[in-house]
Every structure is written in structure tokens, then in C-alpha cells.
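Hi W., the zinc ion complex you wanted:
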Amino acid sequence: MQNCIFCKIIAREIPGDIVFEDDSIIAFRDIQPLAPVHVLVVPKEHYRSLDELPSGDLLNAGNILLAIKNVAEQLGVSGGYKVVTNCGEPAGQVVPHLHFHILAGKKFVP
Ligand SMILES: [Zn+2]
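Structure:
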């Protein structure tokens, strides 16, 4: 989607510190980390938030969850991380492209 910062990272129009990528998912470090490990797991298909993910889209939903698990393993934080998604501006969503925060480390702000 035009003017979406995450779609631009996916398209390599702007740089991102990418830690994982497959056909449908990309994960990169948050540029304003709230924790020692703060990675965003993002489906490549543009949905504004979890609310827009089609109810029957088990493939995307499953891929996202498995990507979160794989990224946590890759980052060495399995067994000690938090996953957060903010749905909509009132909930604190800043970028209107569905994404999940992986937060880990001794000191972090939830
Ligand atoms: Zn987007």
C-alpha cells in the first residue's frame, strides 16, 4: 500500500534491520525499541490491524504465529518473551499495518 512505511520496508524502498523473512512474513527490529529485544513481525500482505485479517485466513494467522515462535528462537529469547499487537489508534497502534511486537529482556516497558 502506498505511503505505508512497513510496505516500503517490505519492498526495500526504505531500509530495515531485517531478522527474518519468508514468502509471507517479514520481521525487523523496531527503530525505537522499548526492550533489549524488540522485533516487529509483519505479514507482507497489508492489513490495517488484526481486525482486518479475514476470519477464514488460517494460513496467514498460522504463519504469523509460527514466524513469531521462529524469530524468538532465532533471537535466543524462547521461554521469556512477550507478544503484543495494538488494534487501532486508541490502543496505541502507530503504523496502520498489522504487526506483532516481540519484547524480551530484563528491563522492558510493556
Ligand atoms: Zn502496509
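The chain is about 20% helix and 20% strand.

W.
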